[in-house]
Amino acid sequence: MPTDEITAAAAGTWTLGDRTVNRMGFGSMRITADPDPVRAVAVLRRAVELGVNHIDTAAFYVSPGGTLGVGTGPARYATELIRAALAPYPEDLLIATKVGPGYDPDSGFTEALTPARLRAQVEENLRRLGRDHLDLVNLRLYRRPGPVPVADRFGALAELRDAGLIRHLGLANARPEHLDEVRDIAPVVCVQNAYGVDAYREEDDFVRLCGERGIAYVPFFSLAGARREAGAAAEGSAAVEAVARAHGATPHQVRLAWTLHQGPHVLAIPGTGDPEHLVANVAAGGLRLTPEDLTRLG
Q: Which of 5, 81, 237, 286 has its CA 20 to 30 A from that of 162?
């Protein structure tokens, strides 16, 4: 499909907390993989030029090591690359980050379970981004039950929200019951879970529930699916490829378009370190699938 004139605005908008953002955003995890930070800075600036005003990140998005487990050379933090590329930040830009997991080059991944450690992670995000507040912080959970109730950790973040360090709160890797656990503590403005056209479809009901409650649903791995951090495979399902051929689009674009078609509250945050992939991903917000396409995709 043609991509030259399509910006993130083609995907429509959603009010995330108190900010209106284009539903096609950008995920920053993969920009750390390239040892040349100049390329990452160029991709981030191009994303903003294309109308992206919602960027997802985390202080544990770092290479070498980190979530991707790749790379050589000095540490490259996604948060610091965002700062280098975009500070002073555009007024309409919302940066969402995550706390809970942490990464130390010597000890690997850790989990913040106390108010002090959660505050330390918030302060790390503030420092690396060069901000005096965070627009949106998602408490990322592990799927296994933890030793500390979700409400306790969410409550610690709510106190930081009351102190002005955080504007809005969300949950990642959440289950429906978590929304009820934290309901009386502070508003949840978004849920970030793994979800895609042919992976994690057990989330379908949760997606609908978030819509009913006016909560944004922000899926990750909508391109990579079950491959997760390994990235999207070159081949796709027969249904995805057939719909792509019918629209003159790529399978990746169909996956992103399907994601956006799951409800006006569903936001996309595809990530890439490739400028050409970025343009194609943003253009997917302008791809309109037919009812027949959606039935075929399931």
A: 81
Structure tokens at 135: 């627009």
Which residue is listed with tokens 């917000």?
285
Active site residue 77: no
255-272 as b/e, with b when 16 or more CB fall inside 10 Å? bbbbbbbbbebbbbbbbb
What global pTM score does this model have? 0.94
Rounded Cα distance, 213 and 284, in Å: 26
CA–CA gap between residue 127 and residue 290 (Å, rounded): 45
d(CA 186, CA 280): 37
Count the Cβ atoms, other than its own, within 10 Å of residue 132. 8
pLDDT of the chain along its 298 residues, tens only? Answer: 666 679 999 999 999 999 999 999 999 999 999 989 999 999 999 999 999 999 999 999 999 877 777 777 888 999 999 999 999 999 999 999 999 998 887 778 889 999 999 999 999 999 999 999 999 999 999 877 778 999 999 999 999 999 999 999 999 999 999 999 999 999 999 999 999 999 899 999 999 999 999 999 999 988 865 555 545 655 668 999 999 999 999 999 999 999 999 999 999 999 999 999 999 999 999 999 999 999 999 8
Q: Which of 61, 89, 195, 217 is catalytic?
A: 61
Q: Which runs of E-coded beta strand occur in the chain?
A: 13-16, 19-22, 26-27, 54-56, 62-63, 76-77, 94-99, 101-104, 108-111, 134-140, 166-172, 188-192, 216-217
